[in-house]
Specification:
By secondary structure, the chain is an alpha+beta fold. The protein is about 15% helix and about 30% strand. It folds into four domains: about 35-180, P-loop containing nucleotide triphosphate hydrolases (Rossmann fold, 3-Layer(aba) Sandwich); about 185-275, Beta Barrel (Thrombin, subunit H); about 275-315, no CATH class; about 325-420, Immunoglobulin-like (Sandwich), CATH 2.60.40. The protein has helices at about 1-5, 10-15, 20-25, 30-35, 65-75, 95-105, 165-175, 205-210, 390-395, and strands spanning about 90-95, 120-125, 130, 135-140, 155-160, 185-190, 195, 215-220, 225-240, 240-250, 270, 290-295, 305-310, 325-330, 335-340, 365-370, 370-380, 385, 405-410, 415, 420. The strands form five sheets. Strands 6, 7, 8, 9, 10 and 11 form a six-stranded antiparallel beta sheet that branches. The chain has a five-stranded mixed beta sheet with strand order 2-3-4-1-5.
Length: about 425
């Protein structure tokens, strides 16, 4: 093939011998068209996996094409540029308009590197690019670094980093969003929270200790739900008052309780072993009880004790929300899949799968039209099919995208924490 391209009449000779489809395949074959310096390295210099690939070059050097082709390889799982398929990708430019005009719709952007029939779909209202295999790329403006707080990705492409107005802030926030793995987590290094303690003290820990479970705490949001989190740094700024930063949020399956803003006066509790669980039977969960609370050193009849009415809802007994929701299409049918989590024994990597933690495996999938539930599918494994006939019955025709909510079921607690997705 190289000999054809080395001859002046090579393209004409080649065109006489191949079909249009074969020609399109050659034109869009990056292994044929790329220069060596446009191909991402397989390994870092030390032999391990690399984290960041910096592409330096002048105008017209092929930086955009290299980035677009690398993203294509990631979402398709094409070796040697990818050793697994990326499901969630971040596309970051200085503005959303530039992401669209250069990285997606430009002459060397993501649309250009695919044959027309294989291109991903741009959902402009959602600022996302969707592939038929279920992978999604979200569009972000580096001018708005806070928009990167919360989402999580397993790959990212950044364009013209030197043009960003807040490069350090945006870059650092993106790095902590590149954390998709077996368990969903969100790391937030930009936010600082002031905490005033009734008693005790707080201390900073190393990053390794943080990942090992140190500095575990809980905060109560405005809806009365507790989010479990961890913090890296604690700086004493006033008597019994600390500024906390470096958060690892949504721990222990509490990502549904995460809020971007917590009101002043929100309750904070350090989960350091000093707290003890209440000894209750499962039958007592959900019942209203009157509790007496006070210092253990005082008699229960002491004036230091207060009466509190409280109903425990058994949050830790509910199944956790499913993760990694995916969809593929076949003849109009939408095949759904997801990964379940577990409340017990999920830390080991030795088993094929985590323990079920329930008497049986069951799921319910609500098909949504805004707040309205159009249909509820059921499943006994982490997969289900929303058929073209069902879509037509619910919406009048098969839908290009479907919003849904997935629950794992408990025999005693019913529906667990939901996972919402639009596919």
């Amino acid at each position: 093939m190289e000999s054809y391209f080395q001859r002046p009449d090579g393209p004409d000779l080649l065109a006489e011998r191949i079909t249009r489809e074969e020609w399109d395949s050659i034109v869009h074959d990056w292994a044929v068209n790329a220069r060596d310096d446009q191909l991402a390295p397989v390994f870092a210099r030390g032999g391990g996996r690399w984290h960041t690939w910096l592409v330096l070059g002048g105008r017209g050097s092929g930086k955009t094409r290299a980035g677009a082709e690398w993203i294509r390889a990631q979402v398709e799982g094409e070796p040697p540029l990818a050793d697994r398929r990326s499901h969630r990708v971040a596309l970051v430019g200085d503005t959303i308009a530039q992401v669209r005009s250069v990285m997606i719709e430009g002459v060397s952007g993501l649309f250009a590197v695919y044959p027309p029939k294989e291109r991903p779909r741009l959902e402009a209202s959602k600022n996302q690019l969707v592939w038929d295999n279920g992978s999604i790329a979200q569009l972000f403006a580096a001018d708005d670094p806070d928009s990167l707080r919360g989402p999580q990705f397993d790959a990212a492409w950044c364009d013209e980093l030197c043009k960003w107005r807040q490069p350090d802030y945006a870059w650092d926030t993106l790095q902590f969003a590149l954390r998709l793995g077996r368990w969903p987590q969100c790391v937030d290094r930009a936010t600082g929270v002031r905490v005033k303690l009734d008693s005790g003290a707080l201390a900073s820990v190393t990053g390794l200790a943080l990942l090992g479970g140190a500095n575990l705490a809980a905060v109560r949001n405005g809806d009365g739900v507790w989010e479990v989190l961890q913090f890296l740094s604690a700086v004493l700024t006033a008597p019994a008052t600390y500024t906390l930063t470096g958060f690892l949020r949504g721990q222990a399956g509490t990502e549904h309780a995460m809020r971007s803003v917590l009101a002043a006066g929100a309750r904070f509790a350090l989960l350091d072993g000093a707290l003890a669980g209440v000894d209750m039977t499962e039958d007592e969960v959900g019942l209203a009880f009157n509790w007496k609370c006070g210092p253990a050193s005082r008699d229960i009849g002491s004036s230091h004790y207060v009466d509190v009415a409280h109903t425990f809802v058994g949050e830790r007994l509910k199944p956790l929300s499913p993760v990694h929701v995916r969809a593929t299409r076949s003849a109009g049918d939408l095949s759904l899949s997801w990964v379940r989590r577990t409340r017990i024994g999920g830390d080991s990597w030795d088993g094929i799968d985590v323990p079920l933690g329930e008497t049986e495996e069951r799921y319910e999938i609500d098909i949504l039209d805004g707040p309205t539930v159009k249909r509820t599918l059921t499943a006994t494994s982490p997969a289900a099919t929303y058929t073209a006939a069902q879509q037509t019955e619910d919406f009048g025709a098969p839908q290009p995208s479907v919003s849904l909510r997935i629950f794992q079921l408990s025999a005693t607690r019913g529906r667990g924490t939901p996972r919402d997705a639009t596919l």
